[in-house]
């Protein structure tokens, strides 16, 4: 069947019904959603107003006041049930991700697997929200550090990980005793409706098992920037985790700090890999191909800059060009496809404009053209490999499309400097079998990114590590390691169990 003949509206309806979303949620509104797979309209949603958003936040605050009193391991039980619902719904939700975002099947499923993984992580965490006992200088005193729930956690997410980003934040926020209010991308609200329905199913089971849980523990707000801003400006939202472009973070960050709220900013990346003389070139080829072309170049961690040592340049780059020329591009729902569509026409225009700029700066472009699949309103492209004489012009910016800028290098210290000489700092990697180069890359004088890998590409992180980046990537960390601490407030407690009142630092105040 041709792509344009696919009835994605009907399939979306079937999936949403299976996932527990009633039809009145995605018909009869003003927010039109189309599938990038063939441009079919797949839903028209009602949007929330900024006023409704404010009311929802007040209600979420009430939910927080109750939820914070529930013991953390019991809160973990809700997240365990959510994980179970996600497991049962993996196929349907993964398929819906593929339809709404255009991800290939294994990536759509992989995104849901990531949600399951973070639920598992959060359940374990619910029994490990450890504080410290700290040595005190005063006798018969005890000093400790406690972690308490924070409040309503606002979640603003980008189109390219339409559901996983919610779970990274929500699973941790919930076990930490918070309520959440989520504003997904206006390009991907249908998968958000499905996730909300799964959450509500888990909550119902939790209530049946445990007796009670507050209403409005997790709220979904459908809308654009104005709804996001209502979340950002509301005094009862002490933390907003915002994932998206650096341009969005530049607006959201200062607005949050203006009212002394916390932020987790997960913004754009401009990720690089360094290919050294001793690199295993077969492995490198696969690592580069997945990182640069996977998800049609629409991951925050997508590989965009490739520095290849002059001694291996002529061995690797022609092989890469062959891979770029032969990679299967097309219907992401079909087995065997590796590169699906761009999200929309604007993404295609941005890509073409970056390629023009690269040509003007002396770049030699291979690929990048539109691939006609008989679906006029969908935008499929051949990934572009651009040999650049230097790191200038569009190489310094993130273009959210599959463009890989390739540059030759001679000296290791110089390439480290070039690697770090862009404003973004999300992910990075080095391919080498030289232990000194590998260790230097991950050392303090190596990559300046939040993620630095050896012998694998910069994209495709696991949930166990803290995820996020430096500089214009925003500095936030979410997901694994001790990222949970951002979702709680820390209190230092000193308890005097003696009969005297010794003051710290030997201060005397005898009245
Ligand atoms: P975007 O910035 O256009 O939108 C992201 C979200 O922010 C949307 O929900 C949008 O409605 C909201 N938003 C925009 N302006 C806002 C404002 N002023 N106040 C409140 N909310 C606002 O990003 P996108 O096109 O959906 O996603 C692609 C971008 O996201 C890329 O730059 C990519 O690198 C980045 N991204 C980063 C990460 C990460 O973890 N670092 C992960 C995924 C995507």
From TrEMBL:
SUPFAM superfamilies: ALDH-like (SSF53720). Residues 30-490 form the Aldehyde dehydrogenase domain. CDD domains: ALDH_F7_AASADH. Its EC number is 1.2.1.3. The keyword Oxidoreductase applies. It comes from the Bacteria. Keywords: NAD, Oxidoreductase. The active site is at 266. GO terms for molecular function: aldehyde dehydrogenase (NAD+) activity. Pfam families: Aldedh. Belongs to the aldehyde dehydrogenase family. PANTHER family: ALPHA-AMINOADIPIC SEMIALDEHYDE DEHYDROGENASE. Homotetramer. This is aldehyde dehydrogenase (NAD(+)). It comes from Rhizobium mesoamericanum STM3625. The lineage of its organism: Bacteria, Pseudomonadati, Pseudomonadota, Alphaproteobacteria, Hyphomicrobiales.
